Amino acid sequence: MRSTHQPRTALAASALLAALALTATACGGGSADETADRAGASASQGAGDGGGDDKAGIPADLTDRLAEHGIDVDAWKDGGWRDWDRDKWLSEAKDFVNPVIEGLWKPERMTSAQEADKTLSTKDASADQGVSDPEPAPVEATAEQTPYHRNAAPVGKVFFDSPEGSMVCSGTVIKDVNHPGRSHLVWTAGHCVHAGQGGGWYRNIVFVPAYNDLGKSEAELGDATTTEIAPYGNWWADWASTSNGWIEGGSATGGAGAAYDYAVLHVRPEQGAKSLEETVGAALDVDFSAPSAAEAGEMGAWGYPAAAPYNGLKMFKCLDRPGRFSLSPVLPTMYRIGCTMTGGSSGGGWFRVVDGETRLVSNTSIGPADSTWLAGPQLGQDAQALYENMSTTYGGR
To answer: Which PANTHER family does the record match to this protein (predicted)?
Structure first.
C-alpha cells in the first residue's frame, strides 16, 4: 500500500542528522580509546564496587537474596548462567538480579548473540478497526557514518541472556534530570529486559555504547580487540524499569504490551569510575510530550539490525514522517515509520528535533515479517513517571 505521507524535505532530514551528530561533542567528555504503579515495575540489583564477593562483584548484602532464588554466586560466575530453571525465572520487580561477571561478554560472545525480534502477525495488524494510518512506503535503512562516537555517540547495543540464549537489542544514552552531566541511564525497549506476560527478567544485561565504532566487517573483526568492539567498555545494568503494561500484556509479537514497550536501565561500568555520560561525552533528553503523529514532524530511528540481510555489526538509521499505528482501539496509538531495519534494532531510539535540539521521542518495538516498517510507543505521562522514578530513586547510586 502506498503511503499518504508527504515527502520529507532534505532540509529536515539534514537538520536531524546534524543535530544528532553534534551531541557527540556537546558534553566534551568521552573518547573513543516498587514505587507508584504508574511508574511501572522497577527492579534493583547492586553490583560491583567491592564489599562483597570479589569473584562476581556482588555486595555482601545481596548474596543471601540471590541464594533465596537458588542462585549460587560462584556457580553463576563459573557458567551457571547457561542453564535456566524456568520454574525459578524471576518476574517480580524486586527479584531482578544482574550481578557483574567481568569478562563474560567477550567479542565473540557479542557477535554470536541473536536478535530479540518482535514480528507482528497479520491478525494483530488488522485489529486496529481503522485507527491506523495507511501503511507507509518502505524506507531503506542507511549505514551510519563511522566512527560512531563522532556521528551517533549516544547509540549502542544492549546484550542479555534469555532462556533461549544470548540476545541483542539497541539502546540510547539519555540525560538524568537530577544528575546533570553525570547520567548512568539508558533507554531501550521493555522486551529487551523482560519477557512480558508469563515471563521474567532477563539476565546479564549489558550496554555497549558505540559498539564496533569503526563499523568493521565480520572478517575484519575475526581477531578484534575488546577496545575495537567496545570502545567505551561494557556497562552492566544494576537497576532496570519497564512498564506494568509490558509485563502484563507483552508477548512474542508485541501483543497488548507493545504500546508500553519501553524501559530504562541504570548502568555502571565493568571497569572505571566515571559516569556513562562523562565517558561517552553525549546523552539525549527524552521528549515526553507525546505529540500526535501529524504534529511530530520528521523522526529518525537508529539501531543495530541483526536479522538478515543485516548481521548486527553495523549501525543503521531510517528517516521518515510518522503515521498512526494501533493494535486496538482501546490501546494507545503508536508511531509508525517506513524502515527496512530488522530485529536487533529493537529498543533503538527514535529522535526528533525540538527547538534545535535532538530528543528521544520513542523506541523501536515491533515490525512486520517483511521488514518494511517499524512501530514504537508514544512516550507520555506513564513513561515520564517511570523515568523520573529511576532518576530520583536510583540515579545517584
So the answer is: PEPTIDASE S1 DOMAIN-CONTAINING PROTEIN, SERINE PROTEASE
